[in-house]
Amino acid sequence: MPASTGRSPAVRRATRILTELASRTDACSVADLARLTGTPKSSVADICGVLIETGMVGRELDGRLRLGGRIGDLARGFVGGTDILERFEAECDRIHGLGDMTVVLAVLIDTDVAYVAVRRSGEPLPLTLKPGMRLPAWSTGTGLALLSDLPDDTVRDLHQHGPPLSPSERSFDMDELLTALSVARDRGYASNADTGEMALAGTAVLVHGSQGAIAAVGSVSALDRGRDSDRDAVLVKQLARRLSALAGIRRRTPGTLPSGA
């Protein structure tokens, strides 16, 4: 039976608060969280007090709130409990040529891609990416890489109720998505450069663990930089191989996408 919308209202409110904090680039006050989530200020203060105690939310010196360090513990579960998150920035720095690009590590949650690690570059981007942020998978390079690991019928089923609009309000097209996934499988990497989503160009490759794909890693740059996706893919594949090695993969060549649908 479907759960009643009246069940566990505090849990629902806590989820909305964490989602709101994850979507913001700056810390947020209790008053702003109350307004943004449509929750009474007193309830927000009580819920955030518990979230602070558990480390899920942190408090700045001025009293504003941000995601806490325990969020990283949850993210580690998405990548098989490995130390990929702790080593992510160091491994990015080992790949010569990635220094001028933002690099992200993402996992698939339903029809969204969720960023679990972000190594920023000095290049300003139209959209500030940070751990905890979720975007429609079909609109991002890492999301396309992760969806390409699924059979087409599964991709259709995931999106049968209609995915959310992309940040730039592009309309979703299933045929366009399946074509993009087929191209990704054939060439061994995914890219959203052709869509121009948020004026960002993302090139992404799967990271494999012992049970298969556990995440996708991708480079992100401003679309007007005129990046060469094939060249970027070479660098991202090198990084994917290093991250897959950390995850203990040995039998399958990491940094490649499956050849079948």
Number of continuous helical runs: 9
Mean pLDDT, nearest integer? Answer: 81
Query: Which CATH class of the largest domain applies here?
Result: Alpha Beta
Which class of secondary structure composition applies to the elements? alpha+beta
Beta-strand proportion:
15-25%
Head-to-tail CA distance between termini: 33 Å
CATH fold-level assignment of the largest domain: Beta-Lactamase
* Order of strands across the main sheet: 5-4-3-8-7-6
Number of distinct beta strands = 8
Radius of gyration: 19 Å
Helices and strands, in N-to-C order? Answer: HHHEEHHEEEHHHEEEH
Helix content: 25-40%
User: How many domains make up the coordinates?
Assistant: 2
Explained architecture:
Keywords: DNA-binding, Transcription, Transcription regulation. It comes from Phytoactinopolyspora halotolerans. The chain is an alpha+beta fold and 261 residues long. It has 2 domains: 60 residues, Arc Repressor Mutant, subunit A (Orthogonal Bundle), CATH 1.10.10; 168 residues, GAF domain (Beta-Lactamase, 2-Layer Sandwich), CATH 3.30.450.40. Helix content is 39%, strand content 18%. The protein has 9 helices and 8 strands. Strands 5-4-3-8-7-6 form a 6-stranded antiparallel beta sheet, with helices on both faces. Strands 1-2 form a two-stranded antiparallel sheet. Helix 1 packs across helix 3. The longest helix is centred in the C-terminal third of the chain and has 18 residues. It is globular, with a radius of gyration of 19 Å. About 3% of the residues have low confidence.
